[in-house]
């Protein structure tokens, strides 16, 4: 391939869950250009059969995460210049998830684990009760606030080597969601959450490699949340609750 | 192979902790066997002590002390991470563990040569 500075040399993964290979494309370089722009250009101008996923284009929906030069990134907010190496960039489907086709992964395992981790609201009141007043400065509320900006992009899940080595491991996002709800005064399922996250694939599998926190595009810290769950489950165990 | 997503400080701290742990697990049986020579074969132990005067062995001991210190301070960091209130200074703590380990093993080497 040429090293024309007006063109980017882009390798894009083509294939499904059983086989595939990188296919090379030349894409016109722009002054301001995201990785998602590059993928869209290829799909619109070179190969309309290229499959990928996106929605909001502004870093809110968590749909467009891909492996860019081997690193998980939200592609709509990743400038090409950040990722480019020797005018080349490789773009692949997210790691640790089944590939549907090309750059689109099956997110079901990721979301199923949110449910397994009890990452859903456990109501503490009925519609007839008064709304509970929450002190925004309360310590538990401040802890819960740290995780609520998760956009479910699965970047942390793709970055995690423990997920790669253990199919049952719930992963950073689901565990962080569980920690957020555990600290939520309006959630009545604290013990249910602890039991869900202390099983075979639970928080104690985490090796604190920190890739989840390192790559989280919203600067969240799932590793800290998992450490919180480890403490909470251990304290619960020593108190004889399980 | 260190793949691109692993190139950050805390992953290096993780892999160094694992490697130092495995290295120490391999070393300890040899260490205890050698110590046992004091009871079973003192002359052979004296021969071993002479062998440890070689410069290359002293340098290997520096590596051993470095790995031991790294495993201990890295382990203390992990225990603090899991049991104490969270600190955002994990990279600093990991770097500190490596620096203190190097200091201790360096002092050991300077005293040995």
Tell me what the structure shows:
Chain A has helices at residues 35-45, 80-83, 108-116, 139-145, 155-159, 161-165, 172-182, 190-197, 211-215, 222-238, and strands spanning 7-15, 20-28, 65-68, 71-74, 88-92, 99-101, 104-105. Chain A is elongated. With 242 residues, chain A is of the alpha+beta class. Chain A folds into 2 domains: 7-105, Ubiquitin-like (UB roll) (Roll), CATH 3.10.20.30; 108-238, Fumarate Reductase Iron-sulfur Protein, Chain B, domain 2 (Orthogonal Bundle). In chain A, the strands form 2 sheets. Chain A has a 5-stranded mixed sheet. Chain A has a two-stranded antiparallel ribbon with strand order 6-7. Chain A starts with 6 loop residues before the first strand and ends with a helix. In chain A, strand 1 (7-15) and strand 2 form a beta hairpin. In chain A, helix 7 runs antiparallel to helix 8, helix 7 (172-182) packs across helix 10 and helix 8 crosses helix 10 (222-238). Chain B has 113 residues and is mainly alpha-helical. In chain B, 83% of the residues lie in helices and 0% in strands. Chain B has one domain (13-112): 3 helical TM bundles of succinate and fumarate reductases, CATH 1.20.1300. Chain B contains 4 helices and no strands. Chain A binds chain B through residues 67, 69-72, 95, 158-159, 161, 207-211, 213-215, 221, 223-224, 227-228, 230-231, 234, and chain B through 3-6, 8-11, 14, 78, 81-83, 86, 88, 90.
In short:
The complex is a heterodimer of chains A (242) and B (113). Chain A is α+β, with helices and mostly antiparallel strands and 242 residues long.
Main beta-sheet annotation of chain A? 5 strands, mixed
With strands numbered from the N-terminus, the spatial order across the biggest sheet of chain A is: 2-1-5-3-4
Secondary-structure element order of chain A, as H and E? EEHEEHEEEHHHHHHHH
Strand content of chain B: under 5%
Question: For the CA atoms, what is the radius of gyration of chain A?
Answer: 20 Å
Write down the CATH class of the largest domain in chain A.
Answer: Mainly Alpha
Q: Please, what is the CATH homologous superfamily of the largest domain in chain A? A: Alpha-helical ferredoxin
- Say how many strands of chain A there are: 7
Shape of chain B: elongated
């Amino acid at each position: 391939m040429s090293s024309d500075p007006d063109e980017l040399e882009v390798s894009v993964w083509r294939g499904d869950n059983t086989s595939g290979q990188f296919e090379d494309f030349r894409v016109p370089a722009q002054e301001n250009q995201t990785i998602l722009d590059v993928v869209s250009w290829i799909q619109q101008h070179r190969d309309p059969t290229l499959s990928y996923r996106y929605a909001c284009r502004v870093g809110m929906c968590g749909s467009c995460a891909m492996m860019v030069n081997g690193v998980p990134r939200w592609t709509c907010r990743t400038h090409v210049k950040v990722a480019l190496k020797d005018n080349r960039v490789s773009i692949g489907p997210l790691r640790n998830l089944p590939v549907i086709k090309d750059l689109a992964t099956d997110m079901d395992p990721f979301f199923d684990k949110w449910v397994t981790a009890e990452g859903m609201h456990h109501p503490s009141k009925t519609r007839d009760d008064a709304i509970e007043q929450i002190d925004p400065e309360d310590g538990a509320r401040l802890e819960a606030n740290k995780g609520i900006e998760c956009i479910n992009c699965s970047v942390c899940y793709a970055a995690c080597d423990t997920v790669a080595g253990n199919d049952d491991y719930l992963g950073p996002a689901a565990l962080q969601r569980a920690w957020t709800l555990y600290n939520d005064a309006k959630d009545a399922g604290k013990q249910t959450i602890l039991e869900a996250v202390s099983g075979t694939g639970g928080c104690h599998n985490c090796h604190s490699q920190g890739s989840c926190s390192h790559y989280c595009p919203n600067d969240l810290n799932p590793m800290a949340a998992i450490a919180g769950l480890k403490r909470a489950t251990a304290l619960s165990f020593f108190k004889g609750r399980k | 192979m260190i793949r691109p997503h692993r190139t950050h400080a805390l992953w290096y701290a993780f892999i160094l902790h694992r490697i130092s742990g495995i290295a120490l697990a391999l070393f300890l049986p040899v260490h205890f066997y050698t110590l046992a020579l004091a009871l079973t074969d003192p002359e052979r132990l004296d021969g071993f002590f002479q062998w440890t005067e070689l410069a290359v062995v002293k340098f290997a001991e520096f590596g051993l002390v470095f790995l031991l210190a790294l495993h201990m301070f890295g382990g203390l960091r992990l225990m603090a991470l899991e049991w104490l209130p969270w600190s955002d200074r994990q990279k600093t703590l990991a770097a500190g563990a490596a620096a203190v380990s190097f200091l201790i093993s360096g002092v050991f080497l300077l005293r040995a040569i």
